[in-house]
Design goal:
By secondary structure, this protein is of the alpha/beta class. Helices cover about 45% and strands about 20% of the residues. The chain has twelve helices and eleven strands. The longest helix has about 30 residues. The radius of gyration is 31 Å and the shape is elongated.
């Protein structure tokens, strides 16, 4: 009998599927093949091994002694196939260039998907994305755990980092349509102090900006009526929509809710808030090509 060629064709997988699913039609459905194709593969294998592998009844299909022997080996062979494939895939991934990016919540959700699509039109570099508040994003860049950061926390360490301004993002005070402010023509700082406030967590650039602006007006966060601290902008938006208080959101985050009427934007007299976003990367005489390419695409897409 000539040497078996199981490693060079699909017949072993087809045989295994028929044995596992106890039938040719069920195996065909599992494999996405016709029942005729499955039968042909099994007959070809039986001719090569020189014996029948299945006993075919009217409604049942069972393994012969030779079939049971082959099935035991097939289980191990196909498991080894899977392990080999996983190992080769891991090697391919490790060899593929990777760009590590950290971005704040609003940027990651509302701006990065289109930006990454543009980047991948001309660059096959794999992207690993981390999302967090501004402090987290900047810390990851300083620690060398990411190659590029997109943040609004203020340009970090200009001696070590290359920073590029991207765009300006106004922050908006938002309330639910049934909030007492909804029909109020003028909202004052005193109104803001009295109203339940949904604040962002420490490390958020939204919170830091509010703190700085309040300080210039002779006020502090301790004088605000903070009833809820939200760990990300989507949580703050949901809380405002539920009527839990006044939230301060990126215009990017608030846009859909404002357009649909689920939230109403209110201007606070003497208190306007605007953030400047920037790209930051480590200074290098020759930065990796993917970093330079991403920053070029990002500057165009985010402008």
């Amino acid at each position: 009998m000539p040497p078996m060629t199981l490693l060079r064709d699909q017949r072993l997988r087809v045989f295994h599927a028929v044995a596992t699913h106890s039938g040719f039609s069920r195996a065909a459905g599992h494999l996405g093949l016709t029942q005729q194709a499955v039968s042909l593969q099994v007959r070809s294998l039986e001719r090569e091994v020189g014996t029948r592998l299945f006993t075919r009844g009217h409604r049942t299909t069972s393994l012969t002694p030779a079939g049971r022997t082959l099935f035991a080996h097939a289980e191990r062979i196909l498991a080894l196939y899977a392990q080999a494939n996983e190992s080769l895939t891991a090697i391919a991934r490790s060899a593929q260039p990777t760009l590590r990016i950290a971005a704040t919540h609003s940027i990651a959700k509302y701006r990065l998907p289109r930006l990454m699509s543009r980047f991948h039109e001309r660059d096959a570099t794999r992207i690993l994305l981390e999302v967090g508040n501004s402090r987290h994003v900047v810390e990851r860049l300083h620690d060398g755990r990411v190659d590029v950061a997109i943040s609004s926390a203020g340009a970090p360490d200009p001696g070590r980092l290359e920073t590029t301004p991207c765009f300006r993002d106004p922050l908006v005070f938002v309330v639910a349509p049934d909030h007492p402010w909804a029909d109020q023509a003028v909202v004052t700082l005193q109104d803001l102090q009295a109203a339940p406030l949904i604040a962002r967590e420490e490390g958020s650039s939204t919170r830091a900006l509010l703190q700085r602006r309040l300080h210039t007006l002779g006020l502090s966060m301790e004088q605000m009526n903070i009833t809820l601290t939200a760990g990300n902008p989507e949580a703050a938006k949901a809380a405002a929509q539920a009527g839990l208080g006044v939230a301060i959101l990126s215009s990017l985050c608030a846009r859909d809710a404002l357009a649909s009427g689920r939230l109403i934007a209110k201007r606070i007299a003497s208190l306007s808030l605007t953030r400047d976003f920037y790209l930051a990367s480590h200074k290098a005489a020759s930065p990796p090509p993917a970093v330079g390419h991403f920053i070029t695409v990002a500057r165009q897409a985010l402008a």
